[in-house]
Amino acid sequence: MLLLASCDKDEERAILAPKDAPGLTASATTLNLTMANASQTAVTYNWTPPTFGYNAAVTYTLQFDKQSGDFSAPYEVAVGTATTKAFTVAEINDLLISRLKFTAGSPAQVKVRVKSSVGEKVAPLNSGVSSFTATPYLVVINYPSLYVPGNYQGWSPATAPKVSAFTSNPDSYEGFVNITDASPEFKFTSNPNWDGTNYGDGGAAGTLSVSGGAGNLKLTGPGYYRLKVNTKSLTWENLKTTWGVIGSATPNEWNSDTPLTYDATTGTWSARVALKVGEIKFRANSDWGVNFGDGGNGAPVDAILDYGGDNIKIATAGTYTVTLDLSKPGNYTFSVK
What we know:
Immunoglobulin-like; 1 helix; single chain
């Protein structure tokens, strides 16, 4: 059935009755998302063409929104003239985290519909709504790395922590390492053994040497260190850190940090914190010189922390376990649960 509606320019726009809408079906409504099956198909959508009463050239767009949304600002995937569209696990995972802003590790509920369009003079026709639930996963990227064997872990490169090259500079490596020995000594190795390039003390402060006779690198005592290495300039630096959470959502707001406690078993920093509706960030040594947020400067809001990133929003007040995980270089993460 075709109805006519008045438009701003005194034109008439055809509006289809609801009974003419396309029918949408989904191959699954509970999606299993893991990195291991990232390339597999997560869900396939099929729909029947709408009835226009004439031979119309119809194009389709799939619209995705949170279950609580109203499709006023959906994420859209243009499909063209096809009446089916499959999505891989990786595509759905990215859609949830990067587009709909869900948090990795937390269940997400999403609704989907297909929009049919035949031109500007005919109002788009939307299908009924299909829904799915899924828990997005954190995409952990394995960056090129150096190993950090030392007396604090038995001088074993194979089991040593890593520093990784995860910035635009392939010669620049970084990572956080928990050092427990009272008089720490270590080296950087290119392999998980001693058969590659090994970086030791270059003599002058903050310098490295690849000579087989180079001495061990040293720190002033135990602690949780950020280590940086540049294999081109043969330099390195260290920063001993403790961590806290700060922000309008915390008890001390932006005035001072709520300290986090390190757990050597999990390799994470955490605390139980009474949070208000507001925002938080993480920072080292109660100073803004080293701080983490999520997103900003072109980075997605994806639960992977970014240096100097945007404030992290707390939508619901409550007492939460706030956790900071810096154990995977380039994949620094947090959770508020």
